[in-house]
Amino acid sequence: MDKDGIPAQAPTWKSYIEPLAWLGLAVVGLTMSAEFDAPNKIFALGPAFWPQVILVGMIIAAVVLGISIYVSGGKPTEDSADAAQFETSDAESIRFSPRLAAIFILPLIYVYAMHKLGFYLVTPFFLPVYMYMLGVRRWKTLLLVTVGLYATLVLLFVKLIFTPLPQGAGYFHTLNGQLMGLIQ
Amino acid sequence: MEDFWNGTALLFTNPYGVAIFAGGLISGLVFGAIPGLNVLTLAAVLLPFTAWMPAEYAIMLYGVIYVSGVYGGAITAILFNIPGSVENAPTAFDGYPMTQKGQAGKAIGYAVTCSAIGGTLSAILMMIATEPIADFAISTFGPIEIFALIFFGLTVVAGVGTSWLSKGWLSLLLGLLIGSIGGDPVTGVPRFSFGSLYLLGGISFIPLILGLFAVSEVFIQGQKIATGAYQAPKLSVEFPSLREFWSMKVAVARSTVIGWCCGLLPGIGATLAAFVSYSEAVRWSRHPERFGTGEPEGVVAPETANNAATGAAMIPLLALGLPGGALTAMMIGVFNVHDMDVGPLIMVEARDLVWVLFASMFWASLAILLLGYVESKSIVHMLRIPFSILAPVILIFSTIGAYALRGNIIDVYTMFGAGVAGFVLRRSAYSVPAIVMGVILGQLGENSFAQAMTMLNYSFLGFFENWISGVFIGVGLLTVAWSIGRRAIYFIHRTQKFD
Question: Which residue of B has its CA nearest to A31?
């Protein structure tokens, strides 16, 4: 885009994926909402009215987004430098790397493992591994932060305010319970 | 005035009272600031112990933690994009971008000062006008007016944090749609629940907010670290100058009034206050496009309003026995533990006690100013901690915060799902603030809408028969027309240039 805000190039078909996705979501939502309505005496407009108004609004906004993309070439509708600062640039494309994948996947593995093995067993492993993935390489830092933070968490949530945290399933549930008993 | 000084004397003439005041202030700040440790947890833990305290100290303790807890949540919202509680979420919209610009000291300075001003003014108003205002507010503001107020607030949200109007609206509508998941508030008919018991109860605010703000931030910064594009935020302890504060006088006054009025409404007080106040700051600003990018008024407005709501929330509580939220409901418990009932007779039967509460909230608001300045100078240095160390800490505290709420692991999955969605949406220039405001105000709004329509016999024009709702709806519609018209003119102008 040049200084006058004139589009430098025409939008490609990929530019229209977003409005089409919104349209798809709204149409699916509207179809589903048809099943909500059951005549009732309490509220004559019915339970589908509120979501249907939202979904119709979504269809209108998606169409407007499509038109905006067509007119502006996929650039914002106001040349606001300030607002653009908040948005992470589309131009900054995500280059795949194993490290990047780990940054996204590790927290999900952590939650799953926490669910199965319990918070107290999994957290001391997650902490150093995630820090390592984010670039901390000094083993002393990894060790000190892990031990210090884990001790603080246990003291605060187990000893002081008795916050219930996931204890895992099966054998691990018993093991975490025993661990907590020891701490308390 | 005599009542006020008597209440103050009861608080501070005994070292025990001073210790409880200071303890309540500091613990409220800490519990308010850390996700998973909200002031409700603190209040619930303390409730049984109040039975062994003299009544005046027990009630004072709750007043102090209420005030300091509301401020405490702003610190993590500003420094790490983790709102301590729902009413601090709008503070993160501009507070965190200010931190990224190297203005963390300024953002915290605004938050401290405005929290103190909002809380103090609110306490003064509470002392002057508890009885008459309670009668007026309760008789005037019903579901019709509340829905109109929420509609009014929503109409400016779409412009926050994005330069695409249509993407702003889509963000807001997505938030409203998420808010409609679960049982319909009137009939309980399941909507978009896919047969899941979890979804039937609706999506909880806390995991959603933690995901959209904290987790998505970890992913965004993590991606930057992985690609070598990460830049640590500049550290600054520079506080706003007196001139800068003075330039916020209108915003502070407006937010105090909004916070105060919203605080009077039982059940939705501080949260509605913060969100509506933020919306109004955007509406009245000469540069609405700057909101969401680190605009100081975006910190001033919600922080003034959510603290102003604290004093106002005491009015329906004390005068009518109507709690404004979970913490004020616990206050009823404290009164009951000491064989007293809140309600119209409380001002006669336990006048001294009520004035102890008023005085404690007033002094707590002023103490926030002092403590906030001292504490803020040191707390900003937390930004020196490398993000690679902070990231897992943020994830773990967010996980605890999401899980501890209901003890449900699905809340944690929801939080991470919201985190991934937040990452994708933020990269595509959608507005996370608009989504959050849509979810929160949408749930409040649908309840009020259903009640209002029943009262109005399903006539939409009925909103204009009442001057309060008529003004709110009318100005809201004009705002939408104005923003669409402005963009349409801009489009036509650009298209002509292109031709």
Answer: B192
Tell me the C-alpha to C-alpha distance, in Å, between residue B306 and each of B66, B70, B210, B257, B397: 11, 7, 19, 11, 24
Distance in angstroms (rounded) separating the CA atoms of residues B316 and B448: 19
Interface test mutation site (partner A, options B99, B177, B181, max chain A beta carbons within 10 A)? B177
**What are the pLDDT digits (tens) for B242-297?**
888 888 889 999 999 888 888 776 656 677 788 888 888 888 888 887 888 889 99
- Please state, in angstroms and rounded to a whole number, the distance separating the CA atoms of residues B288 and A78: 12
Q: How far is B293 from chain A (nearest CA, A)?
A: 5
Distance CA B437, CA B423 (A): 18
Tokens in use for A107?
A: 């927290």
* Cα B499 to Cα B255: distance, rounded to the nearest angstrom: 45
In a mutational test of the B interface, the residue from A64, A110, A134 whose CB has the highest number of chain B CBs within 10 Å is A134
H/E run at residue B364? helix B351-379
- Alpha carbons within 13 angstroms on the beta-carbon side of residue B496 total 6
* Per-residue model confidence as pLDDT tens digits over B166-221: 888 999 999 999 999 988 888 888 899 888 888 888 888 778 888 888 888 889 88
- Asked if the Cβ–Cβ distance from B97 to A86 is below 8 Å, we say yes
- Mark which residues 68-127 of A lie under 8 Å from B by CB: 68, 71-72, 76-78, 80, 82-88, 90, 92, 94-95, 97, 99-100, 103-104, 107-108, 110-111, 114-115, 123, 126-127
DSSP string, B245-289: HHTTHHHHHHHHHHHHHHHTSTTTHHHHHHHHHHHHHHHH-S-GG
**pTM tops 0.80:** no
For residue B162, list chain A residues with Cβ-Cβ distance below 8 A: 76, 83, 86-87
Name the closest residue on chain B to residue A61, using Cα atoms: B166
